[in-house]
Amino acid sequence: MPGRACCVVGCFDNSTKLQAWNKTVCVIHEALLHIDCPCLRPYGLHRVPRRAEDQDMRQKWMKPINRD
In terms of pTM, does the model score above 0.85? Predict the structure, then answer.
């Protein structure tokens, strides 16, 4: 099953890296893995709007992510 990847030019964050991070021990909460600790994830991945009715929103996404 393919994972998700960041769409910003030059960014290499992806869901595989997040899954690996979840399995590591938290530096602050040493007894817990990241998946179980209250710390925030280092980044989140979101879907770019694709539906026809979301085209205005899609255009608003494209410029900041450098995908004109």
Answer: no
